[in-house]
Specification:
With 273 residues, the protein is mainly alpha-helical. Among the domains are: 93 residues, no CATH class; 92 residues, no CATH class. Helix content is 60%, strand content 1%. The chain contains nine helices and two strands. A hairpin with a 3-residue loop joins β1 and β2. About 2% of the residues have low confidence.
Length: 273
């Protein structure tokens, strides 16, 4: 049997809501509830925001012509020949690494690194709320990798790479006939090593020292620290390896752009880094 709900009852319910809201506002911050239900409050707001964004994109796509290029012409190669913007980060990495490293190994490590974050993150702070002071390392490394490196390389590819994949400032004229003489040399040769075996040994020492020696020295230095004990050797090894590889990409880019260093380690027909 359905209940009869009178306007007076509805008014009483609204008064109860207002009264309870005022009561919560009068409570000190320590006594307020620390949880808010996701449904319907958050999901409803996200759904409405998504609908509004979809409407804006629909209107934008209908009213503005997309900057499409002419149909492909097999007799004319565009210069510069650029990938779509979301792949320009990979194309930019091809300047600094061999194709199998820039196109296969590094993207795989990026995906694996993102996948292992929940398993190597032992800091419970910042769970459910945003904080910088309590998660400086995690947030700093992520922003460096995403904004500083990935978005940065996309920005370089979109705005600073011109004909011949040369670097141009945004205000420079893109001269299609520009040829810049660049003599790329390997780091051992730059340091005066002329023998092939000596160059391989020096390159191996530098690469292994960077990937293994530096993290190992830090672990021996900080192994008694409470955070290091909580992290453990395996998790520390994963974090240190991924961090040193990410930092190594920055080092290799800096060496290439400043000193025209092509490779650090050269093992003929096997490995070039």
């Amino acid at each position: 049997m359905a209940e009869n709900i009178t306007p007076a009852v509805i008014q009483d319910q609204e008064e109860v809501k207002v009264t309870s809201g005022r009561a919560r506002a009068a409570l000190p911050a320590a006594d307020l509830p620390d949880k808010v239900h996701t449904w319907p409050y958050l999901v409803r707001a996200e759904f409405i925001s998504g609908c509004v964004l979809l409407l804006v994109l629909l209107v934008w796509s209908i009213t503005v012509d997309a900057p499409m290029e002419d149909p492909a012409n097999p007799t004319k190669t565009p210069n510069p020949s650029k990938a779509p913007w979301y792949f320009l980060g990979l194309q930019e990495m091809l300047v600094y690494f061999d194709p199998w490293i820039a196109g296969v190994l590094l993207p795989t490590l990026i995906i694996v690194g993102l996948m292992v974050i929940p398993y190597i993150d032992i800091n419970p702070k910042g769970n459910g709320y945003y904080t910088w002071s309590e998660r400086k390392f995690a947030i700093g490394v992520f922003l460096t990798g995403f904004l500083g490196m990935w978005v940065g390389m996309i920005t370089i590819g979109v705005f600073f790479r011109g004909p011949g994949w040369n670097l141009f400032m945004p205000w420079d004229y893109w001269d299609p006939h520009l040829v810049r003489p660049l003599t790329n040399i390997d780091l051992p040769y730059y340091l005066g090593i002329r023998s092939e075996m000596g160059a391989m040994l020096l390159g191996a020492i530098l690469v292994l020292g960077w990937l293994v020696g530096v993290p190992g020295a830090i672990y021996q230095w900080k192994k008694d620290h409470p955070l290091m004990k909580q992290l453990g050797l395996v998790r520390y090894g994963i974090v240190a390896t991924l961090f040193m590889i990410m930092s190594g990409v920055l080092v290799k880019m800096a060496l290439r752009l400043t000193l025209n260093i092509k490779y650090i380690l050269v093992i003929p027909n096997i490995l070039n880094i």
